[in-house]
Amino acid sequence: MIAIVDYDAGNINSVEKAVRHLGFPCVTTRDADEIKNASALILPGVGAFGAAMGNLEKYDLVDPVKDYIGSGRPFLGICLGLQLLYEESEEDPGVKGLGILSGSIKRIPQKDGLKVPNIGWNSLDLSGDGRLFAGIPDGAFVYFVHSYYLSATDRDTVKASIDYGTRIDASVEKDNIFACQFHPEKSSATGLRILQNFLETA
User: Fold this and answer.
1) Choosing from 79, 88, 146, 173, which is the catalytic residue?
2) Strand pairing partners for 151?
3) Is 185 one of the catalytic residues?
4) What is the pLDDT of residues 83-128, one digit of tens each?
5) In sequence order, which residues have a C-beta less than 8 Å from that of residue 121 and are 6 or more positions away?
6) Residue 119 contacts residue 51 (beta carbons within 8 Å)
7) Interacting residues of 156 by C-beta distance below 8 A, sequence separation 6+
8) Active-site option among 16, 88, 173, 185
9) Distance between CA atoms of 110 and 124, rounded to whole angstroms?
10) How does the average pLDDT of the chain come out, rounded?
11) Is 21 a catalytic residue?
12) Number of structural domains found in the chain
């Protein structure tokens, strides 16, 4: 069973709908036992870093999520779910993230001709060895909604990036951990293929 973490973040229903469309059984949950026993875990999210961490703590989900990631089974963070894997964010200084991976979450810089938040389709520059992107051509377009972005410390984990006024790390992978700043559930056939690639690792 695929488990999707329910911590009152936006866009959870769209992720569940996409997983079911691909033919995988799933449950949206904040139950620690369902998370513990999942074959794969997805942490989606649209919202603010500080509020999201507050909700994870309110629902006693921080330890279950960390324990699941430590189990070695497949984990996918989407959008805010990617950012929460890191130590902190410029969005809410002083709020500690999950601290699973090392890097900085920064605000997209203001530049002429570029709107913040970045909302819309951007083409991916792929590193060539990301398991999420099997069968996905370099330059494929996916859908983003974000004002903050990842600059990863471990460059070997970065499997896709975009240019949007600065270089943005759009997807990372380390062992059983996968994460993407974009929304595969809103990225048409390309996004569904990315989700399927993840789900087939379970």
Assistant:
1) 79
2) 104
3) yes
4) 999 999 999 999 999 999 999 999 999 888 889 999 999 999 998 7
5) 141, 142, 143, 144
6) no
7) none
8) 185
9) 21
10) 96
11) no
12) 1
Show Cβ contacts of residue 86 under 8 Å, excluding neighbours closer than 6 positions. Answer: 97, 98, 99, 100, 101, 102, 103, 104, 105, 150
> Could you tell me how many residues make up the chain?
202
Provide the angle, in degrees to the nearest 10, between the axes of the packed helices 49-58 and 62-70: 90
CA atoms of 184 and 180, how far apart (whole Å): 8
Q: Is residue 180 annotated as part of the catalytic site, yes or no?
A: no
Q: Which residues constitute the domain of residue 186? A: 2-199
Structure tokens at 72: 């070695």
174-197 mean pLDDT = 98
Residue pair 77/65 in contact by the 8 Å Cβ criterion = no
**CATH number of the domain where residue 150 is located:** 3.40.50.880
